[in-house]
Amino acid sequence: MTKIYAPLAAALAVFSAAPCAHGFATPKHSSSVATSVPTQHYHRQQQQRFSPPAPLFSSTTTSSSEDPYASPQLDTDAILKYGTAAITELSLFAGLFKLLDVSLSQLDIVMPFPVAFVIFYACSLKSRVLNPLNNQRPDRAKAVEGEGSSGFRDRVMPSWTPPGVVFPIMWLLIIGPIRAYSSALIATNVGFFSIPILAFIGHLTVGDIWNTINNTEKRYGAAVIGVLCVVLSAANASYQYYNIDMFAGKLLGGTLLWLCTAAALITDTWRLNPVNEDGKLVPLYPVKGESETKFLWGANKEE
Question: Are 26 and 152 in contact (CB under 8 A)?
Fold first, then answer.
């Protein structure tokens, strides 16, 4: 037990000020928000001029005067950018981990477990730095205070939404350390550049892109499919870990309990935010015109 808690304490001391990893944090249900958001959304659309039917597959720009949900079209431009971002993040992590393994081999050094723990704890919280999209997480301080921010109190939330303070506690003190400890067990066994570790990085990558979809772009429908992909990628990483170390696999698999809760929350949020007063729901794919997917790297700060 001492070996387990020592690296946990060390990592928590280093990263106590870091923001939470994935933006599953959502605000406590507010009656004022619940009554105003759908009505404003509906009346705004009533003032818009509906566009004529168009092909499903299109990536051209939609005019602001058109209602994107009148004749919804798949936003192929967004899909392409999501894929590009995923390949970029995975490639950068793979290259860094390969370089790390080669360096350790050339220097004939065995990576200490606490160091590996800190590396993966940092990856769990800061993986988005290697993703070119805007993966902004909800503001932790505002969540604790119940104030609005990107992903907080900007949509109707289920009445069973946990208090905002629960989410940073989960990510910083439970999910992050579990990911770091289980990953350190695998990396010190088979190396950093390995299928199990890359499966874990794939899970973080999917989570980063989901943050863009849900928090930055506010695509409520696509966010449902996105969070299901987060759950599946976590299950795959847990399975890969289990094949190397049963305990590591079970430990990482424990995070699925939290991720499944987040998936239920996101799905219920989608249900509570229809397109109009008739209850029509947002399509479960990125719709052209509902938002614009942009790369953060190389963008002007004034934009």
Answer: yes
Alpha-carbon span 241 to 252, nearest angstrom: 8
Residue 209 has which token pair?
């892109």
Instruction: Tally the residues of the chain.
Output: 303
Mean pLDDT to the nearest integer, 170-193:
95
Report residue 280's pLDDT band, with 50, 70 and 90 as the boundaries: confident
Across the chain, which distance is largest between two alpha carbons, in Å? Answer: 69
C-alpha–C-alpha distance, residues 278 and 195, integer Å: 48
The residues pairing with 288 across neighbouring beta strands, listed in sequence order, are 291
Contact 68, 288 (CB under 8 A): yes
> What is the model's pTM?
0.74
What H or E segment, with its residue span, contains residue 58? strand 57-58
| 3-class SS shares of the chain: helix, strand, coil, % to 5 | 60, 5, 35
State pLDDT tens for residues 194-219.
999 999 999 999 999 999 999 999 99
pLDDT tops 50 at residue 62: no
Q: Give dist(CA 19, CA 297) in Å, integer.
A: 20
Amino acid at 59: S
Q: How far apart are CA 169 and CA 283, in angstroms?
A: 32
- Residue 125 has a CB neighbour count (10 Å cut-off) of 23
State the sign of the Cα–Cα–Cα–Cα dihedral 9, 10, 11, 17.
Answer: positive
d(CA 67, CA 177): 44
Q: What are phi and psi of 16, to 5 degrees?
A: -65, -25
More confident residue, 112 or 298: 112
